[in-house]
Amino acid sequence: MSNRIQKEFQQQKEAVRLNKYLSEAGVCSRREADRLIESGRVFVDGMRAKTGMKIVPGQVVKVGKKVVSKQDEMVVLAVNKPVGIVCTEERRERNSIIRFLNYPIRVTYIGRLDKDSKGLLLMTNNGDIINKMMRAGNMHEKEYKVTVDKEITKQFLDKMASGVPILDTITRPCKIKKIGKYTFQIILTQGLNRQIRRMCEALGYQVKELIRIRVMNIELGNLKEGEYRKLTDEELECLYEQIQNSSNETVYVK
After folding, report:
1. Residue in 66, 59, 58 with CA at minimum distance from that of residue 28
2. Residue 40 C-beta-side C-alpha neighbours within 13 Å
3. Is residue 7 scored above 50 in pLDDT?
């Protein structure tokens, strides 16, 4: 087999559908990628792209005037962070999440989970996803299971739901429900520093255990403490759909 034929054969093996290429590069969901292609805003080697076409290594893909680079596959991880692990990139912190995870490529966390809390933490190598998910105005949901030191009353639930004065502001109204004598679940759409702990303290309660069980459509599920997994294609697609209209512009917006 000649070198030219071998090269062509290898390229065909590495070919990937354009919508998948854009998704794995962190541009948008596959569904949105198809819409971008149909709108005529995607170009491959200077030519307007067609729906369903495949990309091989070496081709130049642009959305508008922006070159889309897929040097490394985008990674988004769901991590079950244990208590005592710190969300920081400080190299001198021995218990940092970066050291603890020891992932083979550089990833960082999407929103902190304080040292004394545990549960779901998302980590990625895609800065655009981080920016969109971290914008408070985007109202992305985070759900927690919380155990406190005193019996939960209706008054406590009502005050937590309507807003609590902390950190020179009043917390955004939230959803909360009692699931045990000392335990409740709460859904926040903002991320003030140690927010739940401060809210409880303001009402005379102390948090004994705090577990984050969901971020948007991603659930902690049966993931064991200290372990991690990659998000499924379905989870990524749903995540993209939720953040595509968020206030931080994506790379294809001109």
Report:
1. 66
2. 0
3. no
Sign of the alpha-carbon dihedral angle for 90, 92, 94, 99: positive
Q: Are 166 and 199 in contact (CB under 8 A)?
A: yes
Residue type, 114: D
Q: Is 34 a catalytic residue?
A: no
Q: What is the rounded CA–CA span in Å between residue 99 and residue 93?
A: 8
State how far the Cα of 188 lies from the Cα of 195, in Å rounded to an integer.
Answer: 9
Stated pTM of the model: 0.74
Indicate which residue of 45, 72, 114, 128 is catalytic.
114
Q: 161: burial class by Cβ within 10 Å (0-12, 13-18, 19+)?
A: middle
The residue assigned the tokens 């030519």 is 47
Say how far apart CA 158 and CA 176 lie, in whole Å: 9
CA 57/CA 11 separation, integer angstroms: 7
Q: Phi and psi for 109 in degrees, rounded to 5?
A: -85, 150
Q: What is the pLDDT of residues 170-181, one digit of tens each?
A: 999 999 999 999
